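Sample intake sheet
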Amino acid sequence: MSSNRRPTAWAAVEKYILAREKTLLPLSTRAAVEHLKITVPECEHTDDELVQLVAISAVRHGRALAFDGPFAGASSEGRLTAPEPD
């Protein structure tokens, strides 16, 4: 029986981390979030929540992370926003 269900955010995060298990460099949270937004376009999670899921999965699998996203400047909804011009 085939299933047309879309992957959950957690399943997509796990798949992303496991697919990169041979990479020795720290995983980029920015790249992970960008990938997840494409893989799970209807995802209900904010960018910050996705980073947390990536971090949890990475720790579970003994992977290092680079927290390189501009997530500190996220809007109140958690989506990335452009900085205000000076």
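Comment: The chain has a mean pLDDT of 82. Helices lie at 9-19, 29-39, 47-60.
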